[in-house]
């Protein structure tokens, strides 16, 4: 047992490192409590010592080469980091942010975590290399370990699925169902206030979360409340949620279609017409206000390119604060943002130059802990810095308070108000509870001509787009726009009602033509006419494919 006292040949140290990393990975990807990490580490260490791993010298001596498993271990480390940060790893979100830009992101806390992860992975690689160099049994099976690590990694599986879309038999199934949005002018058109509440999903309206959602329920008493607005793939982050609800399509990243792969995107979804484009054509004056930087993830590009006259973010609004230091990692707190929003609505209303539209994106509910404003802390008491329900309650109350203020000032006359969560929340303090529930997004509408009711339908964020148009009196043709259906039309079924969430997500993984449509102008033109985005009549392959569908002319 002399090897136990030798620093050079101490097997328990690398096994502690390997066991701790293994335990952390398992607890991160499952619902096991954090303290099971120590149990897993202890079991691994006990097995290692029992089998005397690391004490079976290799004979004859061999040249010490790097193990095959080092790269697969790094890829697993990346996946665990992403899962720990976001809960559900969305490769499309990763690809989009890399191309759209992550300038001025607010994830400084995750940067610290990234450094810790990097150090841990380096320790794991060193420990595993030591094991391979000191145990011939492990050296023999190590190539198989490398293959197993690659095969079981969800990152590799996801990339493989997307790569398979290149040779799919039908890469235009969704594109054939895309309807070019069309609206006609009307007399006395209403204004629009569209409030995106960061990560405030309707799932929080559950007794196990207390009264965190109470203020939104209070708003809902006078609103049309929609239940069942699910999250399909490629709509699960802020830009994707906004594009889905304003353009009627999931956000499929430019990916390899982008003909300048090593340059940031110069425009966002230039190939389609969205809410801002349509309203601008009708004479609307449009403003976007968000507390975070407009340079992050292409938000400024999207709004500037799709009909908005004014685009305000951190850089534009911070100098106007009474206290310029009253900001968080991402940007302005919501109480400040709502003050600027109210002032912008007052300015637009005073101009009397036609209808206005204001889009607002909050930050209070942002994972992992949220950013409750000082007004909420004054009202709700001390915050522990962790409990996301505190931040949810803050976000809901501030939204309710804003609407009351605007109503008292008469600024919501002839105005449709839409309250929407941009996407389902990512990993937060109540993640284990949320992931056991039937989750859906917040979506409610208020307006002079909208009678309060509760509509329960299987829908997704793409259906928000035509529903907004319909609620404003701009009934889209056949109640359809993009891939969405107006949820105010009970006769026309949504994609999810016809095909289900699982089938739509499977179709998204195979789709090429819709991706080309979104990025028309950025992508090199393909010569294969079979996968060119369909600009004419909808094509149907078979009676089964056409089941319960309309033949649509664009």
From TrEMBL:
Query: Per its UniProt record, what InterPro entries does this chain match?
Result: Alkaline_phosphatase_core_sf, OpgB/LTA_synthase_biosynth, Sulfatase_N
User: SUPFAM superfamilies from the xrefs?
Assistant: Alkaline phosphatase-like (SSF53649)
Where are the annotated segments for Disordered? 526-554
Q: Keyword set for this entry?
A: Cell membrane, Membrane, Transmembrane, Transmembrane helix
Spell out where the chain crosses the membrane: 9-26, 32-53, 73-98, 110-132
Cite the Pfam families for this sequence: Sulfatase
Name of the molecule in the record: Sulfatase-like hydrolase/transferase
